[in-house]
Design goal:
The chain is α+β, with helices and mostly antiparallel strands. It is built from seven helices and 18 strands.
Amino acid sequence: MRRFRSDSMKNQGVWVTRITALVLCLFVCVFMGYHVLRALAEPIATATAVLLPTEETATFSGVVVRDDVRLDMPDGVIDLQVGEGERVSRGQVLAVTYADAGTKLIYQQLRALERSRDRLETVRSSEVSVMSAVSMDKLIRQQIVQVAGDVGKGDLRAADASGEQMKALLFQREYAFGNIQNLDGAIARLDEEIALFESDVSDVTQSMHAPEAGLFSTQVDGLESVWTPAGLAELTTQDAVEKMKVGGQTLSGNTGKLVFGMEWYLVTVLDEEVADALKQSAFIRLGLPLELTMRVAYMSAPVEGKRAVTFASKGALADVAGLRVADGEIVLAENKGLRVPKEGMRVDEDGNSYVYCVVMTQVVKKKVDVIAEVQRENYFLVKYDPGKGLQPGDEIITVGKDLYDGKIIR
C-alpha cells in the first residue's frame, strides 16, 4: 500500500514538472511571437554610415594686385603679335598697327609670302633628298599629332608654329621626290612680290616694343596705379575697404600692360574670427577656376570685427595677369565626417543629437556631434572618432516606431 502511494506521488511530480515546462515554453513563444508580430507590423529601414572628407571654408571677394604698368599703343588697326598672358622679352614686338584695314590685309599677305619663301629656302638648304619617303612620311605624321595636341590644349599660338613646321615638311617632301621644278626661280619670284608689298606698307605701319621683360595682357582697367604691391604691408582694414569701392574703367584706344616680376597678391577683407583661424598659408579656390596654396603675407589690425588680409603667390601669374576682382573660397580646415541621413537624426529634450543603430538584433543609441548640414543632398555630417560612437558601416535606423536603447528587433 505504501509503495503504491509513493509511486503515485512520484508520477504526480513528473506531471507538474512537465506542465510547468509547457507553460514556460508557451510564455516564451507568446513573448517572441508578440515581438515578431510587432516588428512585422512596425517595419524598420536603415542606411549605412559612410565616411566622407569634410572641409571648413569661408567665401570671400578680393582684389588681385600685381606689379604692372599700362602701355599706350599707337592709334590705328592693331595686330597683336603676342598672346594674353604670354611672357615677353625686352624689345620684343608686342603689336603692329596699321593706318586702316586695307593696310592690315596687305601686311598679312606679305607675311604669307615671306613664310612661303622661308619654306623654299629651307628646302633648298636641306639634305632631304637623301631621306626615304617612309622617313619623310613618318616626320609629317608626327607633326600632325603635334598640331592636334596643341589645339587640344588650347595653345593656338603653338599650334600655328607646329602647322608651319608641317607645311615646311610637305614642301620638303615634294622637292625630294621631284614634284617642285625650278626652285631658284620660284624663290626669285617670291622675292619680287615681297619687295612690292613692302613698298606699300613701309610708311603706314608702326610697331610697339616691350620696354622691359614681363607678361603681356590686354586687360587694362585704370587701377594699375591704385593697387600696387608697394604699401600692402601697411594697408589698414579701412583703407582696404575704401579702395575696394573704387571701380575700374573702360579705356579708349589701343592699350595693354606688362606685368613684372613673379609674385602677385590677393587682398580681401575677412571676419576677424576667420582671419584669426588662418595659418602661415591657405588653400584658395578662385572662380576661374584656379586652385592654389597662397602665403599669408600681411594682416591688418581688426576694425569692427574685420581684418584686411593679403595673400601672396609665385605661381599661376599668367592665369591672373588680366584679373582684377576675384571671388572664391578659403579652405580653413580639412577633416573627415560620417554621413547621416536627416531621417535618422534625432534630438533629445536637452538638445543633444543622437542616432539609433541596429547591432545584431538590438537597437543601440549613439550620440553624435553635427559638423554640418548639407541641405541639397538631405544629410548631416557628424564628427568621426575612430573606435568611439558612430563608426563607418554602422546601420542607422531611418524608419521605425517606439525605438529605445536596447530594444530587441527581428
